[in-house]
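job 3f2a | input accepted
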Amino acid sequence: MGRVLIVAGEASSSLYAQRLIEFWKSDAQSSKRSYDLFGVGSPEMEALGFKRLGKSEEMAVVGLQEVIKHFPLIRRVYKALLAECDREKPDFALLLDYPDFNLRLAKDLKKRGIRVVYYISPQVWAWRTSRVNLIRKVVDEMLVVFPFEAPFFAKHGVASTFVGHPLLDELARRPDESAKQAKTHRERYGIAPDEIVLGLMPGSRESELKSHLEEQLAAAELLVSRYPKVRPVLLCAPTITRERLQMATSDFSMPLQIIKEEPLEMIQLSDILLVASGTATLMVGLMAKPMVIMYRMNAVTAWFAKKLVKHTRFFGMVNLILDREVVRELFQEEASAAGMATELEKLLPIESRQAKASELLELRLRLGERGATKRVAERLESYFASSSRPG
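job 3f2a | predicted structure (391 res):
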C-alpha cells in the first residue's frame, strides 16, 4: 500500500495531480501496489478514489483580502491534513505549487519526519527569492518543469530533477484539428468564417473574476465597437460554473457567448486571446495563439508585489521562458479597458497573428520532451521503496 499526501490547491496543479493518479492506477497491476491518497484536490481527483480533505476550487485564492476572507477554511483544512498525517503517517507528501500554504505545511511535515517532494515550483527565481532558504530546509526534492529551474536550485543547494512540463502531455492527448474539424467547431457556435474570435480568459479563481472580468468585457466592447467582425467569447475555467459567469455578465449589452469545454478546445476556437497571467498563458502560448497578458489586483497587494519582484523583467510565463517580450504584458493601471483594447487591436491583422504564432512555436522547444507525468512517477518510486506498509 502506498500512502501519499497530495496538496494541489489550484486548477492547473490539480490537473497535473489527476494525471499522476491516473498513471498510478493504470500502472497498479504491474507495480502490485495499491494507493491510499488524500489531501487537497479536485472533484476529478476524488472520482479516482482520492480522499478530499480540502477542495481546490474553494482554496484557490490570491491576494491579501481574499486570503483573510478564506482564512477559517484554509486553517481548518490545514489542521485536518496534519491530523490525518498524525493518525497514519504517509510514505511522503507531494506538494504542488500553492507556495504560501505548502511551504508552511512542509515545515510541519518535516517536524513529523515526513519526506516532502515539491512538484511545480514556486517562482522563487522571479520573486521572494529568500524562500529558497526555507525550501532547502524543508523539501527533500524539487521536481521542476522549466529547464532553467534546475541550475537555479543547484546553485542554492537544493536537490532538484527536471521532469519537463506536463502541459506538453496535455497537448499530446489532443489530436491535431484538421481544417474541416476547425470549421465544424466554429460553426457549432455560429461563428462566421470572416469573424475574429476574441477569447476572454479572466482567471480560474473567484478573486480573479472580481478583478478582471468587468475590465476584460469593457475592453471587448471597445474592440467590437471599432471592429464589428470581432466575436467575443468568454472561456469558462474548470473551477468556475457557467451560471457564475452568466450572473456576472448580465449587465453587458454586448453579444457574448460563454463556452465551457476542455481548456485546450476553447483556446483552439479562439483567434486572439486576452488572458489573466497564470498557467493559462502557457497553454495559449503552446498552442501558438496570439494574446495579450494582463493582471489586476488589490492596490495594497500590488504594491507589495512590485516590491518583491526584483529578479525579472516580466511576469508573463511565456515571456519568462523565452526571455523576451513576445507577448504584451499589462499590469494594474495599464490593464485598463482602453489599454487592453489598444494592444488587442494590434493583433487583428492576419499578418500580425501569423508572425506572433511563429514566435510562440519556440516555446515547445524550450520545455523539453513529453512524458512529464511518467518521469514524476518514476522519480517518486524511491520514496515508496523504504516503506514497510502492507498492501
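job 3f2a | Residues 11-31 form the longest helix (21 residues).
job 3f2a | closed
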